[in-house]
């Protein structure tokens, strides 16, 4: 094409002159994605700022609004460019949020919900937009992100596809960012609890998915008693104890320990956690992994306290903790940093 090497400024002018052309839109999205990828790979903040000054963000949004529903090329490269742009800095995330990037991401994923080449960067852009920006979190929620993410998350069970794990990880991470009190109703109605438990079970041995899945599990468990009951009924108690016991990833261990803290507020879940041996596992990871980490002792001790406070298995848990050496462990907690 004649315009293949056009610089950003000229690209914007060409798009404005031929805004109804799908061919020009597809070329422009490819070019913008190339610009943003280069700026991200080289970590060139000046190049990213230059793209902003030359109107690339507004140009990209205009193209996607006009053509993303009908063109997979525009949707794919447009989402990738948005993912790169929102990765750079907080001010740009805020700017794109004001331009309508949150609503656009939800719309694109809704139009192409079963296509991993679009869902992966689209959900990645959602994650970036939410990072340190509660306004964008609310924008995504109001646009219907909870429902769309849960629907798109079903691709995470397509184990034979090479993008299965990447999509599942992004979906879990995006849901974890939406775990705010204002969104709890939407998350519950969308089936987020059941999806996260199913994805965690399906990818329990895959650290790439397990880390964001346990993060989302913890976020959901912290919101409401209804969420905790749903997570427990879906088999979540056994899964978080198993992940906490078997994983070597400290982030997964911390997410699981905090999940137990929240889940044990439910009498039914305390029984399930007792059957899974949660008390002894918590004591072990406190002693060996979390004792000297910030808030590690607080999280584990809070979870253990809930395990001996709620439910009919409280006495059983007290005895098992005594036999496992809880008194000596608490002595070490008292003198830890």
Number of helices: 22
Report, as a whole number of angstroms, the end-to-end distance. Answer: 64 Å
What Rg do the Cα atoms give?
23 Å
Structural class comes to mainly alpha
**Count of DSSP strands:** 0
User: Averaged pLDDT, please?
Assistant: 92
Percent of residues in beta strands: under 5%
Categorize the overall geometry: elongated
Q: Would you list the SSEs in sequence order as H and E?
A: HHHHHHHHHHHHHHHHHHHHHH
- Helix content, binned percent: over 70%
Biggest sheet descriptor: none
Residue runs with pLDDT of under 50 for 5 or more positions: none
Descriptive report:
- By secondary structure, the protein is an all-alpha fold.
- Helix content is 76%, strand content 0%.
- The chain has helices at 8-17, 22-41, 45-53, 56-67, 72-88, 90-99, 101-111, 116-130, 134-142, 145-153, 164-177, 184-190, 192-202, 207-221, 225-233, 236-246, 250-263, 267-275, 278-290, 296-307, 314-323, 326-335.
- The mean pLDDT is 92.
What brief labels describe this structure?
single chain, 337 residues
Quick overview of this protein structure:
By secondary structure, the chain is an all-alpha fold. The protein is built from 22 helices and no strands.
Protein topology:
Elements: H1 8-17, H2 22-41, H3 45-53, H4 56-67, H5 72-88, H6 90-99, H7 101-111, H8 116-130, H9 134-142, H10 145-153, H11 164-177, H12 184-190, H13 192-202, H14 207-221, H15 225-233, H16 236-246, H17 250-263, H18 267-275, H19 278-290, H20 296-307, H21 314-323, H22 326-335
């Amino acid at each position: 094409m004649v315009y293949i090497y056009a610089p950003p400024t000229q690209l914007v002018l060409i798009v404005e002159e031929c805004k109804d052309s799908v061919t020009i839109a597809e070329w422009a999205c490819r070019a913008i994605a190339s610009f943003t990828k280069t700026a991200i790979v080289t970590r060139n903040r000046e190049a990213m700022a230059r793209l902003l000054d030359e109107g690339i963000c507004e140009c990209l949004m205009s193209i996607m609004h006009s053509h993303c529903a009908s063109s997979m090329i525009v949707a794919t490269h447009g989402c990738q460019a948005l993912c790169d742009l929102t990765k750079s800095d907080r001010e740009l995330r805020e700017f794109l949020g004001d331009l309508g990037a949150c609503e656009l991401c939800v719309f694109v994923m809704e139009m192409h919900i079963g296509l991993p080449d679009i869902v992966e960067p689209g959900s990645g852009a959602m994650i970036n937009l939410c990072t340190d920006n509660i306004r964008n979190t609310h924008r995504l929620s109001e646009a219907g992100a909870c429902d769309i993410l849960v629907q798109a998350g079903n691709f995470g069970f397509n184990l034979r596809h090479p993008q299965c794990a990447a999509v599942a990880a992004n979906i879990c991470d995006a849901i974890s960012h939406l775990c705010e009190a204002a969104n709890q109703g939407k998350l519950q109605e969308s089936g987020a609890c059941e999806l996260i438990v199913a994805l965690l079970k399906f990818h329990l041995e895959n650290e790439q998915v397990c880390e964001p899945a346990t993060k989302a599990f913890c976020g959901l468990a912290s919101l409401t008693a209804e969420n905790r009951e749903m997570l427990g009924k879906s088999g979540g108690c056994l899964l978080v104890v198993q992940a906490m016991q078997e994983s070597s990833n400290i982030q997964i261990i911390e997410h699981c320990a905090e999940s137990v803290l929240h889940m044990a507020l439910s009498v039914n879940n305390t029984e399930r956690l007792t059957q899974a041996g949660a008390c002894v596992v918590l004591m072990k990871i406190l002693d060996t992994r979390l004792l000297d980490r910030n808030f590690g002792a607080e999280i584990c001790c809070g979870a253990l306290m809930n395990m001996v406070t709620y439910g009919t298995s409280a006495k059983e848990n007290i005895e098992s903790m005594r036999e496992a050496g809880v008194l000596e462990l608490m002595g070490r907690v008292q003198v830890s940093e």
